[in-house]
Amino acid sequence: xxxxxxxxxxxxxxxxxxELALPLGLFGLLLAVSANSTNFxxxxxxxxxxxxxxxxLGPRFATDVLPSLxxxxxxxxxxxxxxxxxxxxxxMFRPLRxxxxxxxxxxxxxxxxxxxxxxxxxxxxGDTMKVAVIVTGAIWPILLNTxxxxxxxxxxxDETCRTYQIKGMSRLWNFVLPSASPQVVVxxxxxxxxxxxLMVISEMFAATTGLGAAIIVFQRSFEIPEMWSGVLMLGLxxxxxxxxxxxxxxxxxxxxxxxRDLERRS
Amino acid sequence: MARRLNSISGFLxxxxxxxxxxxxxxxxxxxxPPLSTLLVELFNLAxxxxxxxxxxxxxxxxxxxxxxxxxxxxxxxxxxxxxxxxRTYTHSTIEFLRPIPSVALIPGVILIFGxxxxxxxxxxxxxxxxxxxxxxxxxxxxIDAVARDTARSFRFSKAGFVVHVAWPTLLPFxxxxxxxxxxxxxxxxxxxxxxxxxxxxxxxxxxxxTSNAIPAMYALVIVTGLMGVGINVAARAIEQRVLRxxxxxxxxxxx
Lengths: 266, 255
Description:
The complex is a heterodimer of chains A (about 270) and B (about 260). By secondary structure, chain A is an all-alpha fold. Chain A has helices at about 1-35, 45-55, 60-90, 95-110, 115-125, 125-150, 155-165, 170-205, 210-220, 225-250, 255-265. In chain A, helix 3 packs parallel to helix 6 (about 125-150), helix 3 (about 60-90) crosses helix 8 (about 170-205) and helix 3 packs across helix 9. Chain A is flat and about 75 Å long. Chain B has one domain (about 35-255): Orthogonal Bundle (MetI-like fold), CATH 1.10.3720. In chain B, helix 3 (about 50-80) packs antiparallel against helix 8 (about 160-195). The interface between A and B is large, with 55 and 58 residues.
């Protein structure tokens, strides 16, 4: 008993060592190589970390990171809801889908940043524009994956529902949405990373507040260590959100992973 | 016939709406010019040298970035996927670097390249590299166990294994990666032009907007959309052609 505990603890430690070896090694290397850097554009990492501590763990977190996060959440939520609400009927009714598909393919192909000037013209430089930019970019993967997910539902389950006369809302809640959900979540994951990129671009374009604005202002005023610390903050921001999303995915699709593992084992 | 009508009905409806709404005053024609005005503007633009300069510049940034990203992704993918143990050691680093938004590199590339086209190439390479790399890694885990053991029984050399077993398994995955990377590359090419000011369509859109040339702005946005559609269609066509022999393409054609 104790033996196995010791062994499993050793296993965890070993795994941790394997996972952390390369990141820590790279970090150490960068720290050492840049320590005596006199290059104006690439200051020592230690100085960047010092600035990071002073800026982003201090007042800037509330004045820049939180507004960015707020806009991202607003835009992303709207994109998810509209994407699913439009995607479900398109997946269910074939004539509707055939009519809409070419139009959607075209709008999806427009690089979302190209719409920023259009939205600036319509909504100015405020929050509305920035949220709208996030929505116009993040909605496409969610919408198209919802359509695919609803369309590709299991035929046997579909016919079973028909046989048992499960219709309307009950069909939607108990069959259509759950069977589409794995694919919808794939779309939501892609949508989130596009949303983060657009959050930053919209802020860089209309530099007022937010993470993207702060970075570009530092760059323009040649406050280089501050700028790199902002880049670091942005990287951690993206990483943290992807971790949060993975936790959400694990929870929301627990039944699906369980079923898949069961199928694989058999 | 009815089916074809069905699939163009969406476009027709959109076109009619876009034409009629501004003319009837349902939408402000200053902000939403009727479609015919945009199309005329598009034809006028197509006659200017500047337009083709924009287009070629964007295409060059796109192509260079995609090429570099694909090459880097393939090489890194083979190295990480085929060297034993490399995957477990690099896993956490990949998972940490991948979600970093490529736009975080914008200030850095401005300092190094300024508004030259290489700025866009760096952004594209960073964003598109992950798509190719991840698909390569998926592909390498997907190698058929029987094929692998057969190759081993026949004492294939490492090179022979890569050429005859790994590569054919990889190709469909690689193409998916390149297809995803190609559309992301266009997004970042336009982004670089808009935010950094590299010469190209993105800057054309910004210039049109700031000088209040609304129809020209819409026309250029439509052009970026057409480029995106063109890239998707071309990527899918090439995929179908190169992977003619692959079951996923053969079966799709049969149905």
